[in-house]
C-alpha cells in the first residue's frame, strides 16, 4: 500500500472559499495526489493547491472566457467530469457542491470518498432563489434542464463509496435526495488567524457573504436601513447592483478584502449578521473566533454552530422586521468573547485535519501509519 495512487477531484478551483479550504487540507494530506478540476485559475488559489499536479477540463483551456462564465456550462459539466481520466487509482476523493461526485473511477471497485458540501442547491432546495425570475433566458433554460440534471445527480450518487457531509443539515439532505448515509465532518475554520487579534468593538454591524440571491443580504441591508445603524458588507456577486439600490446612507460595500482586513473587521464589528439558510456557515465561526457575536437566521447550519445567548442570538424569519427585532434584543445583552473563541476552537483547522485523516484511514481500512506511508502528511 506504500504505492497507493490517489486522485483528488474538485468542481472548480478559482478562489479560496470554504470548499477550497477543505480541498487545501486534502492537498496537504496527499501531496503526491493527482488533481482533476473543471476550471482552474492558479493565481486565485493558495500556494498549497498551486503546488499540486492539476489537470483541467480541456474546454476551459480552449474556449475563450469559459473560466469567467463557468456557470453557463452547467448542462455540460456532468459529461465533462464523467470523462475525467480517473483510471487505476486506489483511492479517489471528491469535494463536491456541483458535479465532482459524479466522476467515473476505473475500475468501478476503486474506493471513492466524496465530501459533499451539498447536493446541488440550484437543482433542489434553492432553485427558485437562483432561477425565480421566469423571464430570464437562464431561468427558462434551467426549467427545461432541471429534471434531467436532477436525474443525473441522483443516478451518479451510486458511484460514491462513502459520503462525508459538513453538517447534520446536509446529512439529512443527502439522505433525502440520494437515499444514502453520510459521516458528518464539520469543515475547518482558521482559528489561529482570528483568535489572536484583540477585540475592539465599534459601532458597525458586519455581513461577510457572496452577494447571491439565496444569501439574503437584502434582509440585513433593509434591517439596518430601518434601524439607521452602520453596516459594512464584505463580498461581491451578481446581486451587487440590486443591493446598492436598496442601501441607505449607513450601508458601506467593501468588496472582497484580504484575510488580515477581514480579521480586523471581525474584531471591530458590533456583531456579525448572518441572514442566510446555509449548509454549515464558516463565517459565523470566524466571527466567534474573533470574539465577535453573531445574529443568525434560525435555520440550517447556524443551528449547529451558534450557541444562543452565549455566542449570539437567532431571528426566526428571513424578513427585515424579524432581524430588526433580533438586533434590538442583542443590544440589551452581553456576551463573553472568550467563550466564543473557545467554542470556535472546536472547529479549528488542525482539529479538522486530524479528524479527516482518521476518517479516511478508517474508510480505506488502513491504519494511520500505513496511510502516512502513502504518503499522508
Explain this structure to me?
The chain has two domains: 208 residues, Rossmann fold, CATH 3.40.50; 155 residues, Glycogen Phosphorylase B (Rossmann fold), CATH 3.40.50.2000. Helix 9 packs across helix 13 and helix 12 packs across helix 14. With 377 residues, the chain is an alpha/beta fold. Strand 8, helix 9 and strand 9 form a beta-alpha-beta unit. The strands form two sheets. A seven-stranded parallel beta sheet has the order 3-2-1-4-5-6-7, sandwiched between helices.
Tell me the total number of β-strands: 13
User: What is the second-level CATH architecture of the largest domain?
Assistant: 3-Layer(aba) Sandwich
CATH homologous superfamily placement of the largest domain: Glycogen Phosphorylase B
- Describe the biggest sheet? 7 strands, parallel
Q: Shape from CA axes?
A: globular
Order of helices and strands: EHEHEHHEEHHEHEHEHEHEHEHEEHHHH
> Strand order, biggest sheet?
3-2-1-4-5-6-7
The value of Rg in angstroms is 21 Å
Number of helices: 16
- Which residues sit in consecutive blocks of at least 5 with pLDDT less than 50? 367-377
In short:
The chain is α/β, with parallel strands linked by helices. It has helices at 18-29, 47-50, 58-62, 77-82, 127-131, 137-156, 168-178, 191-195, 217-227, 240-246, 259-268, 282-289, 320-331, 337-345, 349-363, 368-372; strands spanning 6-13, 34-40, 53-56, 91-96, 111-116, 162-165, 182-184, 205-208, 231-234, 251-255, 271-274, 294-297, 312-315. The radius of gyration is 21 Å and the shape is globular.
Amino acid at each position: 500500500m506504500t504505492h497507493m495512487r490517489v486522485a483528488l477531484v474538485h468542481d472548480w478551483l478559482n478562489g479560496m472559499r470554504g470548499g477550497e479550504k477543505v480541498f487545501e487540507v486534502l492537498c496537504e494530506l496527499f501531496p503526491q495526489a493527482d488533481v482533476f478540476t473543471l476550471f482552474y485559475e492558479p493565481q486565485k488559489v493558495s500556494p498549497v493547491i498551486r503546488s499540486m499536479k492539476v489537470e483541467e477540463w480541456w474546454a476551459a483551456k480552449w474556449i475563450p472566457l469559459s473560466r469567467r462564465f463557468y456557470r453557463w456550462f452547467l448542462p455540460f459539466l456532468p459529461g465533462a467530469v464523467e470523462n475525467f481520466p480517473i483510471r487505476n487509482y486506489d483511492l479517489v476523493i471528491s469535494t463536491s457542491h456541483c458535479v465532482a461526485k459524479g466522476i467515473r473511477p476505473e475500475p468501478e471497485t476503486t474506493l471513492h470518498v466524496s465530501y459533499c458540501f451539498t447536493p446541488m442547491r440550484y437543482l433542489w432546495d434553492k432553485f427558485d432563489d437562483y432561477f425565480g425570475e421566469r423571464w430570464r433566458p437562464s431561468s427558462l433554460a434551467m426549467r427545461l434542464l432541471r429534471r434531467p440534471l436532477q436525474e443525473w445527480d441522483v443516478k451518479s450518487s451510486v458511484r460514491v463509496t462513502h459520503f462525508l457531509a459538513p453538517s447534520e443539515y446536509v446529512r439529512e439532505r443527502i439522505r433525502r435526495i440520494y437515499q444514502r448515509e453520510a459521516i458528518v465532518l464539520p469543515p475547518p475554520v482558521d482559528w489561529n488567524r482570528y483568535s489572536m487579534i484583540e477585540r475592539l468593538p465599534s459601532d458597525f454591524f458586519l455581513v461577510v457573504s457572496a452577494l447571491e440571491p439565496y444569501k439574503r443580504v437584502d434582509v440585513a441591508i433593509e434591517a439596518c436601513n430601518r434601524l439607521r445603524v452602520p453596516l459594512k458588507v464584505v463580498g461581491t456577486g451578481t446581486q451587487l447592483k440590486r443591493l446598492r439600490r436598496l442601501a441607505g446612507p449607513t450601508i458601506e460595500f467593501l468588496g472582497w478584502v484580504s484575510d488580515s482586513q477581514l480579521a480586523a473587521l471581525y474584531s471591530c464589528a458590533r456583531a456579525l449578521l448572518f441572514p442566510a439558510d446555509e449548509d454549515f456557515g464558516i463565517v459565523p465561526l470566524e466571527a466567534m473566533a474573533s470574539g465577535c457575536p453573531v445574529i443568525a437566521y434560525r435555520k440550517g447550519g447556524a443551528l449547529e454552530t451558534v450557541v444562543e445567548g452565549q455566542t449570539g442570538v437567532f431571528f426566526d424569519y428571513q424578513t427585515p422586521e424579524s432581524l430588526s427585532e433580533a438586533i434590538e434584543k442583542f443590544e440589551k445583552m452581553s456576551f463573553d468573547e472568550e467563550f466564543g473563541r473557545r467554542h470556535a476552537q472546536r472547529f479549528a483547522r488542525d482539529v479538522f485535519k486530524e479528524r479527516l485523516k482518521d476518517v479516511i484511514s478508517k474508510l480505506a481500512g488502513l491504519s494511520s501509519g500505513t496511510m502516512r506511508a502513502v504518503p499522508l502528511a
